[in-house]
Structure formats: C-alpha cells, structure tokens
Specification:
Strands 4, 5, 6, 10 and 13 form a five-stranded mixed sheet that branches. 34% of the residues lie in helices and 23% in strands. With 387 residues, the protein is of the alpha+beta class. The protein starts with 9 loop residues before the first strand and ends with a helix.
Length: 387
C-alpha cells in the first residue's frame, strides 16, 4: 500500500465562475458594488451645480476625460485662439486703412485680408516666422495685442503639456499592472479556517510600502425601497507587504470576523461582496496608487488552495504567472469557523487528574508548578514501590 499523499488536480479560476446552487436556493447575482477592474459600479445623478464643480476643478476634469475628448478640446482651444486674434488683427487693419490704401503705413505688413490676418495670428502664436508678414512700429494697439497673444499661447502650451503628462502618469495605468486573483479561497492555515486571495505585480520595477485591506460590503433592501450599505473590516495578519513576488493575503476567520458563522451552505446563500485593495507607492515615480477588486460569494472557493508558482533556481527566484489563478483541492470540512472551533475543542483529549501523594507535590501544585509536582509525586511513588 502506497504511503504517498493524495494528489489533487489543479483548478483554474476563471472570470465566469459558475453560480453555486443548493437544493432549494439559487444565488441571485446582483450588480457589483466594485467591478473586477476596481471601478465603482455607480451612477451619480442630480448633483447640484454639477457643471460648475467640473469647471472649478478643470485640471482634474481634463485629466479624467478620454484621450479623444482631450485632443478635441485642446485642438479647439488653439484654433479658437488663432481665430479670435485673427479677427482682432483684421479689425485693427481695417481701422488703420490697410485694406483700402496699399501705400499707407500698415500696422502689420502684408495683412490685407481676413485670411492674411488669420495666418498672421497663427504664425505669431506658433512662432513660425516665415518672414513674409510681420509687425510694424506704427500701431501701439497691435503691439499690445501681439504681446497678449504670446502670453496666452504660453499658458495654453503649459496647460496642454501638464494635462498630457498627468494623464500618462495616471495611477490607473499603474494599477493595471498589479493584479488580484480571479477568485478567493477558504482553507486551513495553522489549524484555523482562513480566507485568502492572491495579489501580484507584473512589472520588474516593484512597488514599495504596500498595505492590503479588505471589507465585507453588505446590501440590505427594505420593502419601502430603501437600501442600506454596511461595511465591515476584515483583519489581515500581514497587511504590510513587499510585492517582489506574488503574495497570498490571509484573513483568519476568528470570532471577530463577520464570516465566523458562515459555513459552505451559508456562503452559497449569502449576498455580500468582498472588496479588497492594495495601496502602495511606485518606486519609479513616488506616486501613491491603489488597486481594487471584489469577490462575490460564488467567487469564493471552499476547500481550495492556491498552487505554488515560485521556483528557486541557482541564480534567482522564478515566478510562473501562468499559475497565478490556479488552485488545488484540499480537504476542508464544510463547517463554519465557529462550528469548526467547537468541534476541535470537543475532540481535544482531557488531561489526566494529578494525584498528589506527598506534601511536596501538593506544595508544588499550589504554587502553580505542575511539572515539579508530577516529578515529586512520581519520586514518592517509586520510593514506596522500592520499600
């Protein structure tokens, strides 16, 4: 008979985990509070003075909009500024008589039409300088307008470059390179039922000062239509991590955990959502980022353990991310953590009573030294048998 440990086949957590069914209950899949990509699944309506708030914080608004909208906005800002100052230069040329009398001393050289005024505005703001059109010293108002346009063009260029850099350095892009496992698992860890999930950094330049957090989000719908959302924190044993290699975050399901009385059958009926996050600092930019995801009860696998994906070679540690979402089956009772702890206490062997056959043993027992009391009692019994 072979004495080898049983082998368990690997299971891959997919994005579309089948819904768990019981004999009389089917878990109704609700809309997520937090989506798998970390974005909050909510729609905000009837915000007072919404447009005013957006324009008050115009920088953040432009950083958050899509790239195509941002390009369109900046293109319009340039074109409208060229057009506005072109109209101003055209009016100045008209008032000075440059359009009617070619022999007159012009305010701007070779500006005899609206098209020429628009091209003069474009060449001035973009500092092209073809050498065909230019300013003269005859009109002070034209010199003042050119100065104002140059200052405004510097502000527009600074704004465009700042928005583009901020958008490219957005924390959302860095958060996409830090991933959570597609499912969470429940298994035994150091003799306790634990809930765990895996997180990994897919870049070579890793983060610093990572902090893991988890909350159980519960929705309660009343008959009146009112919806209450409650948040309960989960204690994580090692919340501060250095994510050089993929790490399994472990939550021990003890008496302080909101999952303490949840068994496998209860889990299949629950409607809560487990929201997990990792807050960290990028070592390249020094920017604070946060990556989030969520797990519904049908994405929490009972009696599973994450498959090992780290191998030690002669030169380094080798990480196989093909196994990042793979789990293996392990034997775990389908009991809640409370029932498991009670069962474990009842199965512990009772201590044999200590018979104190000598005054010395009694004194040691009263003083709390059980080991010395047992030695004293054993010594007296041996001497009695010898006599």
């Amino acid at each position: 008979m072979s004495s080898r440990a049983p082998q368990y086949s690997g299971v891959r957590c997919s994005d579309d985990v089948p819904r768990l069914l019981t004999e009389d209950v089917c878990y109704t899949k609700r809309k997520r509070y937090v989506k798998k990509d970390g974005s909050c699944n909510m729609e905000v309506r009837h915000v007072p003075e919404k447009w005013l708030l957006w324009f008050t914080d115009i920088f953040t608004t432009l950083v958050e909009i899509r790239w195509r909208v941002m390009f369109l906005t900046f293109a319009l800002s340039y074109i409208l500024s060229w057009l506005f100052f072109g109209v101003v230069f055209w009016i100045i040329a008209l008032s000075n008589g440059d359009m009617k009398d070619p022999t007159n001393e012009p305010c701007m050289y070779e500006v005899r039409s609206f098209t020429a005024a628009f091209l003069f505005s474009l060449e001035t703001q973009t500092t092209i300088g073809y050498g065909f059109r230019g300013m003269s010293e005859n009109c002070m108002i034209a010199i003042i307008v050119v100065t104002i346009q140059d200052v405004i063009s510097v502000f527009i260029d600074t704004f465009v470059i700042g928005i583009a850099v901020a958008k490219m350095a957005s924390g959302r892009k860095r958060a996409q390179t830090v991933g959570f496992s597609n499912c969470a698992v429940v298994n035994l860890h150091d003799g306790h039922l634990c809930l765990s999930w895996r997180v990994g950094d897919f870049r070579r330049n890793h983060m610093v000062d990572g902090t893991a957090q988890a909350q159980v989000v519960q929705h309660t719908e009343h008959a009146t239509g009112k919806v209450d959302v409650s948040y309960k924190d989960l204690n994580i044993e090692e919340s501060n991590i250095i994510l050089a290699t993929p790490t399994t975050i472990v939550h021990k399901i003890d008496s302080s955990s909101p999952l303490y009385k949840v068994s496998l059958q209860d889990l299949r009926k629950e409607t809560f959502e487990l929201v997990v996050s990792l807050t960290y600092t990028d070592d390249c930019t020094g920017t604070l980022h946060q990556t989030r995801t969520s797990y519904t009860p049908d994405e929490i696998l009972w009696g599973q353990h994450f498959q090992e994906m780290i191998r030690v070679t002669r030169k380094n540690y080798r990480v196989d991310y093909a196994l990042f979402n793979h789990t293996v089956k392990v034997p775990v009772a389908e009991l809640s953590a409370e029932e498991y702890d009670l069962k474990k206490c009842t199965e512990q062997p009772k201590h044999k009573p200590l018979h104190t056959s000598s005054p010395t043993a009694a004194v040691e027992l009263v003083n709390g030294n059980r080991l010395e009391a047992e030695k004293a009692s054993t010594s007296i019994a041996f001497q009695g048998n010898k006599l």
